[in-house]
Amino acid sequence: MNTVSGTGQARQLAGMISQHHTQLLEGWMADLIGRLMRRDKIAENELRQQAAQFLPSLAGALESSDSFDIEARAWDDTRQLLTEISQSRVRQGYSPIDTASFIFSLKEPLFGYLRTALDDTPQQLSEAIVGTSILFDKLGLLTIEIYQKAREQVIMRQQQELLELSTPVVQLWKNVLALPLIGTLDSARTQVVMESLLQKIVDTGALIAIIDITGVPTVDTLVAQHLLKTIAAARLMGADCIISGIRPQIAQTIVHLGVNLEDVITKATLADAFVVALKRTGSTITYSKQAD
């Protein structure tokens, strides 16, 4: 008995998708909606639109490429469509399983049409089902890969935004800035801190920057080095730094580590550092006694 080659299988599947487009779409939609774990996250009409776009794209790729090689140029539009769908699933809060189900749920409707068309040729039917299954496994894995990359980008963007939000630079007084630090100071955050502080120095022309570490739980050699780098960068921009929030435990740790902070002014509280900053900028605060 003659069998259908890989090329023949691709064309055969493309013709079947085009011929039974409407019925296939309805069967696929029913299965797809039934599989979705969070179907409230996307409107049915949007889901139907995506499915309606995918079917002709899939048929065109199969027809043009003459193969199940989804890396071929003929599959560019289909891969791009799956990229857009997978990325939208990330934004809408879907899981990787929900995303891959968009592809995997199309298997059974297609298998049904293959069984009907090739019922009299068992070997050809078996080969067609195996080839189609392998194709959809590739497409499903592609959606998961795209989903994971998009999710990682979202997480990295959120982390960057959190870093920026957690390092506000505040102008306390004319020529005086304050940078309150809360949490661990690592290399990535140091870069954000440095960029934020330097940009604020440029914008305001500040002469003094108070770096308050009251909210930093521990100071080790690495944290101390990060602080020194920030101070050095600020000095290059024409601003001196004062470190406030030096608690007894932190002072002992810094001495024990042998970190050289001799040329840096340190204070126990932000208020004490602010007083020093006012004096160094030639500013004074006058208290007036209110009448009883």
What does this structure look like?
It comes from Janthinobacterium psychrotolerans. This is RsbT co-antagonist protein RsbR. InterPro entries: Bact_StressResp_Reg (IPR051932), RsbRD_N_dom (IPR025751), STAS_dom (IPR002645), STAS_dom_sf (IPR036513). With 292 residues, the chain is α/β, with parallel strands linked by helices. It folds into two domains: 152 residues, Globin-like, CATH 1.10.490; 111 residues, Transcription Regulator spoIIAA, CATH 3.30.750.24. The chain is 64% helix and 9% strand. The chain contains eleven helices and five strands. It has a five-stranded mixed sheet with strand order 1-2-3-4-5, sandwiched between helices. β4, α10 and β5 form a beta-alpha-beta unit. α2 crosses α3 and α3 packs antiparallel against α4.
Element layout with pairings:
Layout: H1 6-19, H2 21-35, H3 44-65, H4 76-91, H5 96-104, H6 107-117, H7 122-165, E1 170-173, E2 176-182, H8 187-204, E3 208-215, H9 221-236, E4 240-244, H10 248-257, E5 265-267, H11 270-280
Parallel strand pairs: 2-3, 3-4, 4-5
Antiparallel strand pairs: 1-2
Helix pairs in contact: 1-3, 1-7, 2-3, 3-4, 4-5, 4-7, 5-7, 6-7, 8-9
